[in-house]
């Protein structure tokens, strides 16, 4: 798939005129093919979907340059609040037990291990719902789950389940997608399964489904717990809140908290930046107590370009700018 862009000859804006005569963007379904294309000079810049192993290899390749910048991509587990263990439409529906299951999972997951063992540090631990670096972002999950410092705590997980009267091991169906969120998904979710099962508190049935089926099945309540990822549309905390936790959420996991909905509406219209950041922090705290989703990792922006390419800029806007790119 190709898309061609040409400079606007009539542009009179504040930014400099385009440094190139036009850009052709190509979509690659396979990240390995894209990696080879930039190494062989068939394309000038590759970005967004390269895996951790590919990036590590490319950093050793003298024929290309690796450019990094702050990233807003997040990876997380979604719980379907209707169909998860003890969910609202199951035969054993129990809100307290359902929450305890989510809490125990949050107590057991080891983000640092996922970051280092699966992604070589190209993704970093994420302890809240808004990407780190944005106004209002906090670490709402860090202090209340696991060991309080970001690590796992098996005893705490066991207590959460026992206090709610949940018998163990908890049978959990966990679904992931191998072809939409990068090649690391297989190893990522195999490790999550291992982390949850290591203490005997969970018995995880891990399954994968290709994207065409996955994207339909997840909104039809077929997956009690499942992988999702998010690339932001713009660099503002709201882009991690309204799409996820409002009544019109694309996640469609049956989460509904009237207080959170009201706070989301408030932050949209709050003109005072300090007050807005406080509201955004409160939203994260409230959602962390409910745990409809479990954030895991945040990715950085990475682009790989030929040595003769200049002007590739990756910044907190999360926008890939074509105009400054030049060659030669």
UniProtKB/TrEMBL annotation:
GO molecular function: peptide transmembrane transporter activity
Cellular component, GO annotation: cell envelope
Compartments, record wording: Cell envelope
Alphabetical keyword list: Signal, Transport
InterPro entries, alphabetized: SBP_5, SBP_5_dom
Annotated Solute-binding protein family domain residues: 3-248
A GO BP entry: peptide transport
One Pfam family in the UniProt entry: SBP_bac_5
Similarity-based family: Belongs to the bacterial solute-binding protein 5 family.
Protein name per Swiss-Prot or TrEMBL: Peptide ABC transporter substrate-binding protein
Species per Swiss-Prot/TrEMBL record: Clavibacter michiganensis subsp. insidiosus
């Amino acid at each position: 798939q190709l898309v061609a862009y040409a400079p606007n000859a009539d542009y009179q804006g504040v930014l400099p005129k385009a440094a190139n005569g036009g850009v052709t963007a190509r979509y690659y379904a396979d990240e390995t093919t894209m990696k080879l294309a930039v190494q062989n000079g068939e394309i000038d810049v590759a970005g967004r979907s390269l895996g951790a192993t590919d990036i590590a290899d490319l950093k050793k390749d003298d024929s290309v340059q690796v450019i990094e910048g702050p990233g807003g991509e997040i990876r997380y587990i979604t719980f379907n609040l209707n169909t998860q263990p003890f969910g609202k439409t199951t035969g054993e529906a129990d809100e307290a037990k359902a929450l305890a299951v989510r809490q125990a999972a949050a107590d057991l997951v080891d983000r640092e291990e996922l970051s280092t063992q699966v992604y070589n540090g190209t993704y970093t631990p994420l302890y809240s719902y808004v990407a780190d670096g944005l106004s209002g972002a906090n670490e709402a999950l860090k202090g209340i789950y696991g060991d309080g410092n970001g690590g796992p705590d098996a005893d705490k997980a066991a207590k959460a389940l026992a206090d709610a009267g949940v018998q163990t091991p908890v049978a959990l169906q966990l679904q992931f997608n191998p072809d939409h969120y990068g090649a690391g998904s297989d190893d990522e979710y195999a490790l999550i399964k291992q982390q949850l099962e290591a203490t005997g508190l969970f018995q995880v049935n891990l399954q994968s489904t290709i994207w065409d089926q996955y994207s339909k099945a997840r909104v039809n309540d077929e997956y009690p717990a499942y992988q999702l990822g998010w690339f932001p549309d713009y660099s503002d905390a709201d882009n991690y809140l309204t799409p996820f936790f409002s009544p019109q959420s694309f996640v469609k996991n049956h989460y509904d908290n009237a207080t959170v909905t009201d706070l989301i509406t408030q932050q949209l219209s709050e003109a005072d930046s300090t007050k807005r950041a406080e509201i955004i922090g409160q939203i994260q705290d409230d959602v962390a107590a409910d745990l409809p989703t479990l954030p895991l990792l945040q990715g950085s922006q990475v682009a790989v370009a030929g040595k003769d390419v200049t002007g590739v800029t990756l910044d907190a806007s999360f926008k890939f700018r074509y105009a400054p790119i030049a060659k030669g």
